[in-house]
Specification:
Blueprint: H1 20-31, E1 35-39, H2 46-59, E2 64-70, H3 77-92, H4 96-106, E3 112-113, H5 116-122, E4 127-128, H6 134-148, E5 154-160, H7 171-187, E6 193-199, H8 202-211, E7 219-221, H9 229-242, E8 246-247, H10 249-258, H11 263-276, E9 280-281, H12 283-306, H13 310-320, H14 329-334, H15 340-352, E10 356-359, E11 364-367, H16 370-380
Parallel strand pairs: 1-6, 1-7, 2-5, 5-6, 8-9
Antiparallel strand pairs: 3-4, 10-11
Length: 384
């Protein structure tokens, strides 16, 4: 029997819980051909809600084609643009002859070519006959819109870990070219293709889409609602019952609060608990599951802390102690933060490392990873 506690892939169908309103909003945006962006911490359920909505659309008879490409290893504008164009060709064409026809017809006058030997040797669809210039890149970015135009179904491309494009030296060039292409295609009435931008580095994504205003009014942001603790508890209890096991509701609620309703960690935790018991899942089992979960991730946590300066560790400790006004003289003195100017640099550094973010008008500091926060309190700083 399939485990109800999935943490190694996105979930849909009966395993998907909560966020009904978010699903409705996302479905409406996609049906209208809008570009959508979601950024949330790792494990928050970005891919799950996208694929849940796409699955519902398909069941509802909506005709569409969806594909995914990752920006995880992107370090140059050329690599990203090639991958976008190549993904579009693979989504909408299927044979080498069709690939060649697309390049000859729609990329004529550029330095892109379809090299049959390169395709046979390395599965490369877009080769270059010369160094690529901005006109070449722009033509390639137009390709998904052109190929989608006139089709009876909509075309969606999911751009996973999009924030990594900004790690390239010429990342801003990509954003500007994409904006130009979006505006041009919209003016020509080509609205059959749209992007779904996903990012797990929340500060980096906010920097692109909010602070620097890229894609302003071209992309709709969907901020995911928290999944209610009650729904998660019911999901876990039903999952245990399906395997003939029983767990205490209060203990499960405590685990949800500790992990701040992060479904990746919760499903991983409950999967471990499930494997450690044959009947009633009691507190010792859950404590052992928690320690196992921490052991799995502790290497990553240790590496994160080893990468911090003494000042950065001090600011992180101040966050854990509940402080928000780090420039206050008593906080600076207590945590040896040196000066208010240094505090600003420390905040920026911890945000760039995606350890903390600031939410609300009051800019309340939040540690992004709930298990990391628990490990900091109980292992690194040994706060009881």
């Amino acid at each position: 029997m399939d485990s109800p506690f999935l943490y190694n892939k996105f979930v849909t169908g009966q395993h998907f819980i909560g966020r009904k309103e978010d699903c409705t909003i996302l479905g409406n945006l996609l049906s209208q051909g809008e570009n959508v962006v979601l950024w949330e911490p790792f494990g928050a359920g970005k891919k799950s809600i996208v694929h849940q909505v796409l699955t519902r659309m398909k069941v509802g008879g909506v005709r569409f084609i969806a594909g995914t490409m990752t920006s995880l290893d992107v370090r140059s504008a050329e690599v990203f643009v090639r991958r976008v164009a190549t993904s579009a060709i693979r989504m909408l064409r299927s044979t080498p002859d069709e690939y060649a026809a697309v390049v000859e017809e729609h990329l004529a006058g550029t330095h892109f070519v379809f090299d049959r030997k390169a395709f046979a040797d390395s599965d490369t669809i877009l080769s270059a006959s010369w160094d690529l210039d901005d006109d070449d890149l722009k033509a390639a970015l137009k390709l998904p819109y052109i190929l989608a135009q006139g089709r009876p179904d909509r075309v969606y491309m999911i751009l996973d870990e999009f924030q990594n494009v900004d790690l390239a030296d010429d990342g801003e060039k990509v954003f500007k070219l994409m904006e130009e292409v979006m505006d041009e295609m919209k003016s020509l009435g080509m609205r059959n293709f749209s992007y779904i931008f996903l990012g797990s580095r929340v500060n980096a994504m906010a920097d692109i889409f909010v602070r620097r205003h890229y894609f302003y009014r071209r992309v709709h942001r969907l901020k995911l609602s928290p999944i209610e603790e009650r729904e998660i508890v019911e999901h876990i209890i039903k999952g245990f019952l399906a395997g003939g096991k029983v767990a205490d509701r209060d203990l499960i609620s405590g685990a949800c609060r500790l992990l701040k309703c992060n479904m990746f960690y919760i499903n991983h935790f409950t999967s471990i608990s499930d494997s450690l018991s044959k009947g009633y899942i009691m507190e010792p089992v859950m404590l052992e599951a928690l320690q196992t979960l921490i052991a799995i991730h502790s290497g990553r946590f240790v590496a994160t802390m080893n990468d911090l300066t003494t000042f950065q560790v001090s600011l992180l400790k101040a966050v854990l102690d509940g402080h928000a006004k780090f420039s206050a003289s008593d906080v600076i003195r207590k945590y040896s933060l040196n000066s208010s100017a240094n505090v600003r640099r420390l905040k920026d550094a911890l945000m760039k490392k995606e350890i903390i973010t600031f939410v609300g008008e009051e800019e309340r500091p939040v540690i992004l990873d709930p298990l990391f926060e628990y490990w900091l309190k109980n292992t690194y700083f040994k706060k009881r």
